[in-house]
């Protein structure tokens, strides 16, 4: 008899962006028999008493492995589990499927660190009572569930409201940006840029809608890292939050269906992995076939679906210039004499990191100009982006090791405007190396 699969503990919130990514990934691994996990609500008590001492960060999700190892960061959690439990695979192999592998990592970066801006904005802009429509009451419910888990319904909502009016600064919003709204301003998401971000998000959703008309997942008939990463913005914010959720379900029904399929809940109509569709044989018996597209597998021969290229194009046209500028800005900060080698760098994604506000706000040395929809605006530099790029550089190096791999990557990138600039990633990263210990970044 086989022994029970390794049992992990995930500390997460239902409404958290990066929790959605990891939870769906773990469900897929668990469905494949690779592991088991318990999804634990990360209450303030657990965050302060368990997570922060283990990793020096309050960010969720975090994972406790059966051997007592803590893993913080959605990308590290996926890498850790993929190494420990390679089947079913979610990251295509560097030798057999280098182009698919690189495509997955590019989509992960886009989903994690670019789509986050609009997803974050819509949650809080439409979380204001003064907006019509708004989901202020829903926001109270979803945040109250975490911050006052033992309270009754009214008490939970009241606890969230106190948080919103207090440190989150929701009532004052852009009139006096602090808390959440200081984060939005630092990301370059303000009332002036909102429509440009919305248009960018719409364009992406239109392209995904076209893709999911043909393929059930990013690479074909099974999920991959690209799907789990896209689920971060798409499940926790754009599907669950009511204002965005109404638009998603009414305007992008196939993307909504993919959310259910990838999240693996309420997915009978959505057809999901492991599911079979049945027809009737000549003798009236049930005849099964895989329920998902492409014969229930990733496309063969390392093919990146043609309908995924327009999504990757958004990475290069919108995000890549910002990433290059991030490297340049960080490099000059590290060389400025104002940063001692090995000292800590800001590590957060959604807001300036406490203690680093002078660097990351206003015209601070870790801020820079970027462009969205033809508008120029200012945002903070996020050193974590460099950590993600270093990870991508490792992936690229593995993928171009062989002549065949090199040709596959070259061919993928040559189909994307400015795509070949990625081949100079090592040069972009020169002089701005960062390393991560638990939840903290150093440079
Ligand atoms: N890079 C991290 C980001 C994690 C993150 O920012 N999590 C959010 C919730 S989705 C959070 O905990 N924010 C609170 C904070 O950082 O103070 C990951 O991939 O896991």
Give a quick summary of the entry.
The chain has 443 residues and is of the alpha+beta class. It is 48% helix and 11% strand.
Tell me, what's the shape? globular
Please give the count of helices: 17
* Uncertain residue ranges: none
Number of strands: 11
| SS content category | alpha+beta
User: Mean of residue pLDDT?
Assistant: 97
**Main beta sheet strand tally, sense and closure:** 4 strands, mixed
Looking across the biggest beta sheet, what order are the strands in?
Answer: 2-1-3-4
Question: How would you explain this protein's 3D organization?
Answer:
This protein has 443 residues and is α+β, with helices and mostly antiparallel strands. Helices cover 48% and strands 11% of the residues. It has helices spanning 17-31, 44-55, 74-84, 98-113, 115-125, 136-147, 153-165, 180-186, 194-212, 225-237, 242-251, 253-263, 309-334, 357-360, 383-399, 403-414, 425-429, and strands at residues 6-12, 35-41, 62-64, 70-72, 276-280, 286-290, 344-345, 367-372, 375-380, 435-437, 440-442. A hairpin with a 2-residue loop joins strand 10 and strand 11. Helix 11 (242-251) packs across helix 12 (253-263) and helix 13 (309-334) packs across helix 15. The longest helix is centred in the last third of the chain and has 26 residues, at 309-334. The radius of gyration is 22 Å and the shape is globular. 46% of the residues are buried.
Task: Set out the fold topology.
Layout: E1 6-12, H1 17-31, E2 35-41, H2 44-55, E3 62-64, E4 70-72, H3 74-84, H4 98-113, H5 115-125, H6 136-147, H7 153-165, H8 180-186, H9 194-212, H10 225-237, H11 242-251, H12 253-263, E5 276-280, E6 286-290, H13 309-334, E7 344-345, H14 357-360, E8 367-372, E9 375-380, H15 383-399, H16 403-414, H17 425-429, E10 435-437, E11 440-442
Helix pairs in contact: 1-3, 1-10, 4-10, 4-13, 4-15, 4-16, 5-9, 5-10, 6-7, 9-12, 10-12, 11-12, 13-15
The chain binds glutathione.
Glutathione binds next to helix 1 and helix 3.
């Amino acid at each position: 008899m086989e022994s029970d699969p390794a049992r992990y503990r995930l500390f997460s919130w239902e409404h958290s962006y990066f929790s959605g990514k990891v939870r769906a990934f773990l469900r897929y691994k668990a469905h494949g028999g690779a592991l088991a996990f318990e999804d634990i609500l990360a209450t303030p008590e657990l965050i302060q008493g368990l997570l922060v001492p283990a990793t020096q960060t309050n960010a969720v999700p975090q994972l406790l492995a059966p051997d007592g190892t803590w893993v913080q960061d959605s990308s590290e959690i996926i890498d850790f589990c993929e190494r420990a439990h390679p089947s079913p695979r979610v990251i295509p192999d560097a030798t057999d499927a280098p182009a698919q592998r690189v495509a997955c990592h590019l989509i992960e970066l886009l989903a994690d660190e670019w789509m986050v801006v609009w997803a974050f904005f819509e949650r809080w802009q439409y979380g204001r009572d003064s907006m019509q429509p708004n989901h202020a009451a829903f926001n109270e419910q979803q945040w109250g569930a975490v911050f006052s888990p033992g309270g009754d319904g009214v008490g939970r909502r009241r606890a969230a409201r106190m948080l919103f009016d207090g440190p989150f600064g929701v009532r004052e919003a852009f009139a006096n940006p602090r808390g959440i709204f200081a984060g939005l301003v630092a990301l370059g998401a303000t009332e002036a840029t909102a429509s440009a971000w919305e248009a960018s998000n719409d364009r992406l959703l239109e392209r995904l809608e076209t893709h999911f008309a043909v393929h059930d997942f990013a690479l074909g008939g099974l999920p991959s890292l690209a799907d789990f990463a896209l689920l971060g913005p798409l499940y926790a914010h754009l599907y669950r939050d009511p204002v965005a959720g109404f638009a998603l379900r009414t305007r992008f029904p196939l993307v909504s269906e993919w959310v259910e399929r990838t999240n693996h809940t309420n997915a009978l109509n959505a057809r999901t992995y492991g599911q079979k569709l049945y027809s009737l044989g000549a003798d009236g018996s049930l005849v099964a076939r895989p329920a998902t597209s492409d014969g229930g597998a990733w496309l063969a021969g390392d093919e990146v679906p043609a309908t995924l290229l327009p999504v990757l194009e958004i990475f290069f046209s919108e995000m890549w210039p910002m990433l290059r500028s991030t490297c340049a800005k960080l490099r000059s900060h590290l060389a400025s004499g104002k940063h001692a080698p090995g000292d800590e760098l800001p590590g957060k994604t959604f807001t300036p990191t406490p203690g680093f506000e002078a660097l990351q706000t206003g015209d601070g040395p870790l801020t820079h100009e970027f462009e969205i929809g033809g508008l120029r605006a200012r945002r903070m530099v996020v050193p974590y982006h460099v950590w993600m790029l270093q990870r991508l550089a490792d992936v690229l190096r593995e993928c171009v090791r062989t002549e065949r791999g090199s040709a596959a990557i070259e061919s993928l990138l040559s189909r994307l405007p400015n795509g070949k600039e990625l081949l100079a990633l090592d040069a972009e990263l020169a002089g701005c190396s960062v390393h991560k210990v638990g939840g903290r970044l150093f440079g």
